[in-house]
């Protein structure tokens, strides 16, 4: 990542230090409180992170136009940002959102899977796994503020968060449409979806590669709440306050208990999953599907 965390915090009063202490200790604190904030910012080409140490909330803004697709740079920036936040005692919660109009994330960058050899596939897939693992197993409260369409890998970010708020716009879609692209959602992402939607709904969603409009996503429980687009971020911040009212240690233990089985299965099968991906994605038939899908995406514009 090109940039470093810049410490621009200004300690201006005792109030701010007690709020910061509140953030560190995981005790409930009434916020939003806009006075005397401590802000740390970190910007890479694809991702911006703003941590407000006075509230303990970091906002990670995806800023890779045109569609926040997850290329290697994106995945590397994401992993580094997550590591830094996880280690930062001032950070208790993370909000994910997008600066790209109408798109949260278009998912994996198909160009990273098209026309590349097995070595690249291996490195790329490990990075994809790492993104999911870091978010799914995070100690922080994670909230996806989905302010645009969120297919495939975009939906992965939302699913692996603790709570999902989406802009109430029927033109925005979310879901795991991998089968449509000619690829298959990995078992750990499937497991993640089963936990959210249940087995039957997941089976239909995956087999039919369904992308749900925001209202339909709410109906099936793929997102937790719809709000007007301009309120997505503020609602995420308000929701964070509710999650922060629970002591960190008990919430974290509960989260890891709920997610342990999926994480253990992932860790035991991680290398096999990488090999499967590298073998699968480099097959001629899969390359042909990816090529056809890419051409369709490009043709849409013409
Ligand atoms: C059994 C063994 C296991 C094997 C495992 C197999 C692998 C499993 C992988 C599972 C996990 C995730 C998979 C993915 O994430 S694949 C990506 C799927 N994504 C999509 O299908 C979304 C495609 N994009 C869209 O639908 C739209 O772009 C949008 C997001 C709704 C936005 O629409 P828009 O009108 O605003 O923008 P648009 O004109 O379509 O796009 C602008 C340019 O961006 C290019 N582009 C879009 N999406 C991608 C992408 N995902 N990767 C690369 N490039 C993308 C698009 O082609 C346009 O380019 P250009 O300007 O025409 O050059």
TrEMBL record:
Homotrimer. It is found in: Mitochondrion matrix. It catalyses: (2E)-tetradecenoyl-CoA = (3Z)-tetradecenoyl-CoA; (3Z)-dodecenoyl-CoA = (2E)-dodecenoyl-CoA; (3Z)-decenoyl-CoA = (2E)-decenoyl-CoA; (3Z)-octenoyl-CoA = (2E)-octenoyl-CoA. PROSITE patterns: ENOYL_COA_HYDRATASE (PS00166), PROKAR_LIPOPROTEIN (PS51257). It comes from Denticeps clupeoides. GO terms for biological process: fatty acid beta-oxidation. This is Enoyl-CoA delta isomerase 1, mitochondrial. GO terms for molecular function: delta(3)-delta(2)-enoyl-CoA isomerase activity. Coiled coil: none annotated. The lineage of its organism: Eukaryota, Metazoa, Chordata, Craniata, Vertebrata. Pfam families: ECH_1.
